[in-house]
Amino acid sequence: xxxESNLPVERSRILFKGxxxxxxxxxxxxxxxxxxxxxxxxxxxxxxxxxxxxxKNLDNFLQYILNHLPPxxxxxxxxxxxxxxxFSREFEILASENTDKSDLLVSPDIAICENCKKELSLPxxxxxxxPFINCTDCGPRLTIIQDLPYDRPKTTMAKFAMxxxxxxxxxxxxxxxxxxxxxxxxxxxxxxxLYDNNGNKIETGNPWQEACKxxxxxxxxxxxxxxxxHLACLASSDEALIKLRKYKNRENKxxxxxxxLEMIQQNCRVSETEKKHLLxxxxxxxxxxxxxxxxxxxxxxxxxxxxxxxxPYTPLHILLLQEINxxxxxxxxxxxxxxxxxxENTNTEELRALSDYILSHDRDxxxxxxxxxxxxxxxxxxxxxRSRGYVPFPITxxxxxxxxxxxxxxxxxxxxxxxRGNKALTSAYIGDTESPSAIAAEKFAIQHYMKLFAFKPDIxxxxxxxxxxxxxIAGEFPGAEVVEIQHHKAHVxxxxxxxxxxxxxxxxxxxxTGYGDDGKIWGGEFFVGDYQTLSxxxxxxxxxxxxxxxxxxxxxxxxxxxxxxxxxxxxxxxTQFAGKFGKKGHQQLEIIKNxxxxxxxxxxxxxxxxxxxxxxxxxxxxxSFDGDLPSLVQGVAEKSGGSKTCYDFSIEKEEKNTIxxxxxxxxxxxxxxxxxxxxxxxxxxxLANGIVSMAEQARxxxxxxxxxxxxxxxxxxxxxxxxxxxxxxxEFQVLIHSEIPANDGGISLGxxxxxxxxxxxx
Length: 762
Description:
Elements: E1 10-19, H1 25-35, E2 39-44, E3 49-55, H2 58-67, E4 74-83, E5 91-93, H3 114-120, H4 164-170, E6 192-196, H5 207-216, E7 221-224, E8 229-234, H6 238-248, E9 256-258, H7 261-267, E10 268-269, H8 272-278, E11 285-290, E12 306-310, H9 315-324, E13 328-332, H10 344-354, E14 357-361, E15 373-377, E16 380-385, E17 395-407, E18 417-426, H11 436-452, E19 459-463, E20 481-485, H12 487-499, E21 505-515, E22 521-529, E23 535-540, E24 543-546, H13 550-553, H14 556-567, H15 572-579, H16 582-594, H17 596-599, E25 600-603, H18 606-616, H19 628-637, E26 650-654, E27 657-661, H20 663-670, H21 676-702, E28 706-710, H22 717-729, E29 733-735, H23 747-755
Parallel strand pairs: 2-5, 7-14, 9-12, 11-15, 17-19, 19-20, 21-28, 23-27, 28-29
Antiparallel strand pairs: 1-3, 1-4, 2-3, 6-14, 7-8, 8-13, 9-13, 10-11, 11-12, 15-16, 17-18, 21-22, 22-23, 24-25, 26-27
């Protein structure tokens, strides 16, 4: 006798929470229930997906579900309750239902899946070369959602009435396009249009093919993607890149490229781990080592050894690359670090100024999302910019917060974060919030998250710098407590949050600029403690930063100040270096000599130390973007082949702090007769050794053997590798970032984590 026939018939209600809408979860439950011969129903609600099933062997059924989830879904919690039998006769998918609570998570926008790729390339398929092909396993999500639950009327697809064939697929639970909200075809979906930069529509039978002709002819074409517009041109054309840099007013900052895997492998070294991430559903831009003789213009990434490449992640991208058959520049359409342009009706003039032609479509983007950027370190992903493909996946923190906490982020590389319960939702990359348009973008995105995830903050966290414009957003929440968190503590906090570390650590925060607790400009900081007791243990030696922020754009000024401190005002090396910049150089030297306190500030910034090294080594004297010269110093050092030499440094005590003094490093480097490449490498090695020596000093005083490395300077994988290896040699446990950027893109998470610590319980 079949043992199962003796089992009782039961009914259970299961509430699933997580990423369970828009990812094929309901049809999966439908098919699974039929497989187990169960009756009942499934439906979307604002709280999650509710499943009621009636039949035998429900425990095995639940285990089967949890062990065979659809690839894009994620169940973060579920609750099972027993119900009386209702003697239902079939299993149904019911209409969505709104409730008062929203515990849903939303899927990020997902790269085109293999099944859709096949249909896109199959002449017999009705969606052959359809630029908007998608299914429940791929396509737009977050960027088109206006509200939850995730149903077509609450997306920007609402205006497109499905044709009979698309409607049939959409309503068939056995079809992979069942309730794929963006489902459409040539007859009923979005359409492409091509315009010149005067706004005139170009009449053509095939807009994307015509756009390809324009790109091949050396033009810049703005292309509407999932989360905003890209600017595209031939990656091999110096002329096109010169034009693009002029349009964007972007002197040296690298551009992202797009190519097939074969194109990427022709131009870059690609490990198996890097290949896996390139081809993942998130499809980030990966920074890859450039091969000698790569068929890509040197103007793509001047002075860099890496190229940022991504694969085509939408059907339109695939069509463009197939037609052009060579790598394309595919950089964000924006004005100098402002948010990506994504709304035609408000930004048409900006798009015209940035491009020769505009390839657009009529599916609205509701929420912007720039491309994610990452590297691979220690055989795992090391995020540089977290956005499309990853947001809004949550970070699970090791505590359950009774307060809803909103962190507004810093000035540069801004994101915001919301902590609710034990989940942290960090927004997509916004940009630098120095302009009114960037502040408006952050406000809009926060309001959208508040509606989407049904929250109102109890605590709003801001950076301690009194001049950061986005601090003013806190005024939008008059009932909330406002908390200031120091910039570099927030860096350490973001690492603690991501790694789930609750015990004491030595937090090393190597960064550019942050307003310190003592009113000075911090940036090379050492902390000790846990999430509740984090305190400053030490820092890089304070040096005079003449002209304040002007020295960030013209780093030679800080290098001159460093040389003045090292050698004194009358030394030949100081006056010779000042002479390189003519009258301005001598004027700056006089200011440094006569009144440091009146015309500048003191800084412990590690980013400025890299700037000074670039100037002293003759690598560069002016900076055109954040991290410009430090990335060049890294690029030069990576060409050296390595060295076992280390320059000198000292560890000193000043009042309560321990000081890492790198002035001896500069003295040795200046007097070193080696090649610049070797000196640049030894500079990195010395800095790494200095950091490790500070960690050893902290361990001897506080008996802590865990070190966390954070801050934008640790985007430099050479420094990260040297520091990590040396720490492990000294038997430290090393914590590093992965999902959350080490740079300022992670600040908002750290703000929330540290500000809410006093409220948390396990």
